[in-house]
Structure formats: structure tokens, C-alpha cells
Amino acid sequence: MDRVLIDNIVKKVITEMNTESLSDKKEKITAGLGVFDSIDTAIEEAYTAQKNYTAYSLEQRREIISLLRKKLINFVDEMAERAVIETKMGRKADKILKNKLAIEKTPGVEDLVTEAFTGDDGLTLVELSAFGVLGSITPVTNPTETIINNTISAIAGGNSIVFCPHPSAENTSIWTVQLINKIIIEAGGPKNLVTAPMKAKKENADILFSHEKINMLVVTGGTEIVKLALKSGKKVIGAGAGNPPVIVDETADIQKAARDIVNGSSFDNNLPCTAEKEVLAVEIIADYLIFNMQKEGAYKISSTEDMKKLENAVFKDGYVNKELIGKDAGYILDKAGIKFDTVPKLIIAETELSHAFVQKELMMPVLPIVRQKSFEEALKNAICVEHGLKHTAVMHSQNVTRLSIAAKEMQTTIFVKNAPSYAALGFGGEGYSTFTIAGPTGEGLTSARSFTRKRRCVLSGGFSIR
Fold it and tell me: Which one of 7, 33, 334, 391 is CB 3.0 to 4.6 Å from 181, fit for a cystine?
């Protein structure tokens, strides 16, 4: 038997054994520590907790967040493990990195900056104050990361928060909520500052969107759930879907671009909504780019027959096959019946612009590449395939003028230049991290100040000392 085939079989068996043993460890989670049998109770308890929390000073908030960072970092391995087992999506190593980002680089109380105006008429302060009780819908793609990220932002702003997790990440999410509550109480904070219902049900979202004690909604999910939240009449932070294009022009460092694209698009098996979803490569460098992407671990679909197999696997009845979302590239090739010799990080295939791989967000390590006559054509088509979502775009070029034009024309919330897409999240790029990227409602990369309201305090005729 072929040696490579033997190695692949051994790896598959070991993976299955590890998954089975990990699943055996999963305990039954019961109510308590912020988790309740009904969404109504979760909201009522969060309401009471927030009323108590108003008495806490900024320094006390800071101490609670500091202990959360210190304690949660010890659980990143388990968080990642639980998420991969329950959701059957993504890669443990990458989820560990994402959890670390959420813990370490989500801004806390320091994000609440006060504005001051002084003059002949006295002193005016504009300060950031709590909304009250926040309601948060969290995704299956980043369950623990989003809960941690939104928790730190919410409590830094003086709020409590009620989570409605995705059904496919239910156990992992409520386990995370209970862990967070345990640490908050240990830090001297009020109980039930962070809550969730035991069971993920569709009606939970309906109740959350209409409940009178929910002051603001934070929705991280698909386009439809964001639209539904916007109809609630409440203040909404909506983080919707994306279909990030990558432009590569002839001036780019092609070897680096290839490495960055493969790393970014394969990160957590392409689950992040910021990840590269299609490449628009200028014709003159397309072959060299593909060659280097293969060197970096991408598997190229070369035959019409294999392309048809891949299409049949990725789509079912015209929709993206949910069974392949977030799966390893090798797993997808295997399901498609395509033979491969090495374990690939990413599957690449040349397509036309109109191909479904380009037009639809796949959320799996399958990356279409479309040849373009020029930078101008690539930019025009990048705007088209981004579908006006205004989420994320990436470009590789050494031409500063082109980079500037593309950034201005794309109008995306995130524009990454000459780096993997995850640089936008603070991994290999400057700035804070977030897993709630609000393109539809305009807040952008959210932080504590996004979860607060501005209040003006005016002292007329005094305290101006100029």
C-alpha cells in the first residue's frame, strides 16, 4: 500500500480516537451560575444584577475584568476543544488563538473616554454610561470568543448581558457563561451579571427582541437574524455576514501574498467572517501566485471531473452543504471523492466570476481564484462580489496609490493591506480585538464604548479656569 495513503489512514484513525475520548469526558451541564431554565428568568436576574452593579466603581469594574483575563486564559485549551467537539467545526489550535485574542485584546474600562468642553459659559462633560441589560445573539462559528468579547465590553460599560447561544454550540456556550459568572463572583462582582437560558430555542430570540427590560441588542450572526433584530425597535448593534474578496496586483510580493492568503483563508477552516473568500488576481501574476499557494499547502483542483465532484460536495440543492462548513480541507476532498497525496490546508480552484464559489460565502477552506485583466477590473469585480455587505476586503500590492483607491472604493468596515485577513482582529496587526464587527449598523469593530450611551452634564458659569 502507498506510504502516503497509510499515513493518512493512521492520522484519520488517531483523530477519530481522540474525538471519541474527548466526547466521553463531556459532563451534563445543569442550571446555576447565571444559567436558567427560561429566558425570562435569565433576563429578570440580569436586570437585578445590573441594578446592583450600578453601585460598583470604575476601579471595581477594572478589577473584575482583570481577574477574568487572568483566570480565563487558563481555559483556552478546553474552550477550543469543547467548541470543536460540539460544533464539529474549525481547528482547535486556531480557536485557542482566537480565545486568547478575545481575553487579552478586548478593551476594558480604559475604553470609556470622557469628553470635556470649557469656556466662558463653564464646563460640560460628556461621559459614557451603561445602557442597562444587553441581549446578545452569539454564533456557532465563534461561540466562546464572542461571549468573552461581548462580556468584557458589556461589563466594562456597566451593563449586564443575556446571551442566546446558537443551538449547535449550546453546551459550550452555557459552560462558558457559568465559568465567567464564577470568576465575577470570585472578584466580588454581583451574581448573574452574565446570564443565558439552559436550552437554545428559536422563541428565545423572539423574547429577547421584545422584552421590555432588554435595553440594547448585540447580534452576531447571519443577515436574516440581524434584519429581524432591527425590526425590534430597540437600539441594535448588528454584525452580519461577509464575503471578503482579495485583490492581488502585479506589484505585490507574490510569495508573501500567497503565504498570507493561504494562512488567512485556512485559519479556523475559514469560519471567521473576515477570512478571505475569493481571490481576484491580475492575469500576469496569477500562475505564479497559484504556484506559491500550492507551495504553502494549498491543493489545486486541476481537472474538470474533480471540479464537478467538489461542486457536488459543497452544494446541496443549491445551498451550501452545512455538513462541510468549518471542516478540514482533507475532509472535504475525501467527501468529494477526490484523491490527494498530502494533508492540505486549503483547496483552491480557478473559476469564473459568476461561479457560486465566488458569489456565496462558503465558510470552509475552499477558495476560488478569478483571473483579471487589470487592477481596475479586479477592483470593480471585488466591489461586486462583496455584495455591498461592507464587511472586509484584502489587497496585496506595493502600489500605495492603488491601495488607497481600493480602500476608498470598497467602503468596507475592514480593509487589510499586505497581510492575512486575521491581522484585522489584532493577530499580527495593531489595534484591539473584537468578534462583533458591526457593518450593517455602523459601529464597526465594537468595544466597551459601543455598549454605552453618551450623557451630557453641564455646569454653567463655573469651573472654567482659563
Answer: 33
